[in-house]
Amino acid sequence: MSDAMPVPFVDLLPQWGAIEAQVTPDLHKLFVSGEFCLGSWVQRFEEAFARYLDVPYAIAVNSGTSALHLALIAAGVGPGDRVLLPSHTFVATLWAVLYVGAIPVLCDVDPLTGTLDPEDARRRLQSGAKAIMPVHLYGQPAELDSILALADQHGLTVIEDTAQAHGARYRNRAVGTHGAFGCFSFYPGKNLGAAGEGGMVVTADPKAAEQIRALRNHGQYERWIHRELGFNYRMEGIQGLILGHKLPHLNAWTDARRHVARRYQEGLADLPILLPTVRHHDHVYHLYVIHTPQREALRRFLEQRNIQTGIHYPVPLHRQPCYTALGISAPEGYPHTDRLTEQCLSLPMYAGMQEAQIDAVIAGVRAFFASADQGPT
Ligand SMILES: Cc1ncc(COP(=O)(O)O)c(C=O)c1O
Fold first, then answer.
1. How many angstroms does the Cα of residue 70 sit away from the middle of ligand 1?
2. Is the dihedral of CA 145, 149, 150, 152 positive or negative?
3. Is 162 in the pocket of ligand 1 (CB under 6 A)?
């Protein structure tokens, strides 16, 4: 082990420091009020989040996975329908498709950004396709123009998986508001994170909003009347409270992430690694992901210097046992997804990273490539 400055992959303590003074008295009020499930804190956060994104409706739920599930139901996607989604994403995007009994059509991704390749999606389109789920991977908007055009041509509902891209903009509109639905996660390490689990569906469709509001609360459109199969996907009051206090800091925290990204970009530009490619739009750097064939050796090297890294994601959806068991054949394969998943390495990234920590990461990566023995990949 080295005695270099330790750098965790994520540190959420600086965020707590920014909100603690306001949260503490409000927590007392919450316990006195007993508004533990949904309630006024959640409602105020829904309204603030809708204003932040400039979208008519925001419905808070208990996770990003629940948000995706309810959006697919509201889109009318059901058993036997096909849904296009990238293979290079977190497994939750796939869960939602399977929860409604639909057939996933996995697509390959752009070789540089890792987001859904619209041309590949076009090639894989089959009859029965109902929806397409672009993922704004790592905080970078997917190529929405082409995806929306494809969806328009083929009557697909666009459900944006915005779990990693709070506040990112595409053509000057927040992602999550371009398709019919935007689905957010507030898992603690996300750019906007709860003190536990949380999620949100946003939409401009009043009927869909009403349905999602009912579905998250046992399918109740009115008290004790359960019109359709419902779920307990309610957001907890405490999460609404925490998220409501964090939201005003989100833009500053995004700027802080962009500062870390800029420092990495400058400090690593001349090395034989693929740095994040920002195509034309915004990037909110939920993750800062580099690519190198020496991923494993670099990871071990950094670990010895007390620098934590992550891999997002080591196993793509088309290689997950839960997917291969479905027996869906795709002989053309997923060459870009395969290469990216073999080579991706996420460097430490969070708002509140100290300059010395950023320096330590840059120095660590540089030292690896300067060393004669870079070890086996
Ligand atoms: C791309 C993506 N989709 C969906 C989810 C699911 O969100 P949650 O963990 O809040 O259910 C996540 C978060 O982990 C994610 O990164």
1. 14
2. positive
3. no
Ligand 1 atom at shortest distance from the alpha carbon of 136: 1
Q: What does the alpha-carbon distance between residue 182 and residue 51 come to, in Å, rounded to a whole number? A: 14
- 129-167 in b/e form (b: 16+ CB < 10 A) is bbbbbbbbbbbbbbbbebbbebbeeeebbbbbbbbbbbb
Tell me which CATH code domain 13-107+115-248 carries. 3.40.640.10
Residues pairing with 232 in the sheet: 217
Matching CATH topology for 13-107+115-248 and 250-370? Answer: no
Q: How far is the CA of 277 from the centre of ligand 1 (A)?
A: 22
Q: Where are the domains of the chain?
A: 13-107+115-248, 250-370
Q: How close is the Cα of 166 to the center of ligand 1, in Å?
A: 12
Domain at 250-370: CATH code? 3.90.1150.10
Q: Is the CB of 238 under 6 A from ligand 1?
A: no
Quick check: CB of 200 below 6 Å from ligand 1? Answer: no
Residue 239 beta carbon below 6 angstroms from any ligand 1 atom: no
State how beta strands 157-161 and 181-185 pair: parallel
> CA-to-CA distance for 155 and 178, rounded, in angstroms?
15
pLDDT digit of tens for each residue in the chain (377 aa)?
456 789 999 999 999 999 999 999 999 999 999 999 999 999 999 999 999 999 999 999 999 999 999 999 999 999 999 999 999 999 999 999 999 999 999 999 999 999 999 999 999 998 999 999 999 999 999 999 999 999 999 999 999 999 999 999 999 999 999 999 999 999 999 999 999 999 999 999 999 999 999 999 999 999 999 999 999 999 999 999 999 999 999 999 999 999 999 999 999 999 999 999 998 779 999 999 999 999 999 999 999 999 999 999 999 999 999 999 999 989 999 999 999 999 999 999 999 999 999 999 999 999 999 996 565 55
Centroid of ligand 1 to alpha carbon of 92 (angstroms)? 6
